[in-house]
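Entry 0007
Protein: ABC transporter substrate-binding protein
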Amino acid sequence: MLAGLALLPFALPADAVEITIACGDGGEADFCPELAQRWAEANGHQVNIVTTPPSPTEKLSLYQQLLGSHSQDVDVLMVDIVWPGLLAEHLVDLNEYLPDSATEGFIPSLMANNTVQGKLVALPWFTDAGLLYYRHDLLDKYDASVPQTWRALTDTARQIQTAEREAGNQRMHGFVFQGRAYEGLTTNALEWVASYGGGTFIDEKGQVTVNNVNAVTALTLAASWIGDISPEGVRNYMEEEARGVFQAGNAVFMRNWPYAWSLGQADGTPIQGKFAVAPLPSGPDGQSVATLGGWNWAVSRYSEHPAIAADLAAYLSAAEQQKSHAIMYGRNPTRPALYEDDDVLAAQPFIGELYQTVMNGVPRPASITGDAYPRVSNAIFNRVHEVLSGDVEPSQALQQLESELIRLGRRGW
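Output (structure tokens):
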């Protein structure tokens, strides 16, 4: 079932053990195999590297198959930020195997996300947060400021879109985002609603909070974008579709993850040197909210060597390895101190700009809802997509969503 590579270039001591780690997809940006081998050489163990599918959905399916069968084939797993609650019953409590020093110094919200019913089931590896990308050349051209609120974004986007179309660019749009009915829309909707003071759909106590006037106001404004500052097709956009429009020079603003920065600044792109990033806008009385993304290291409960596997997870997420990850691959650290590190900032100045955004990031209600989260997210993005499509009024959609989430909660988060 698993294809892997055993890395064994040195003599092993008699007490050596074999640890298998599920890394990324084996692409150029996968730093896991190299770091795992360094750990093996330093600690006298053998490490087997398993590459996993690039699709998070396929990766999760593989993990569920392995863990559901209590397989001992994999000891350490790279898990998405929304999986700790879903997989918690199959993961060890890392606090039982690691010293306090190994679990200190991380961004608090990420550690909270990875703590399920008092168990620390994963250590943060790298993080992402939603950002506002904007064309500073167009803002300068029309003497406009970076919008601080969603209403200001709406007005500025419409002004520049209209002017650019009158000047001959009929493809120009004001704002693109992830509007398809999938997990990406849940992240966007969370940012809209929470930034308006409407909560996070489900609070940290498991109470459903989605049906409120601030949430209605946020979704009403978002629905108004369709066919105005956002194309009708945005309702089928994921990250790459939004990036494609923005990178082609046909959008003033874009909501996306940090990965889009280096791609947009690559030599030969139409927007190279013409755009920048800022925190996402807020509601009139709220604050900027960015949904957190990222990946973490967890240890299977079925590992024959959980203590040693936990040591590998701690090594990968330690400050030294995260610093190298940031410098070499531009990955955002999960340790606040690295956002002030001179070497990191010299190599990747963009990372320094993300500090406040990451520190104020909001996790999706995944840990509290556990294995119900896929159904929770499905309910959220489907109801929000109906609002964007004009099929249902925001107030009606939120009432329906509230009922759905309460029913799911009754079955037990």
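Curator remark: The CA atoms of residues 107 and 335 lie 6 Å apart. The first strand starts at residue 4 and ends at 7.
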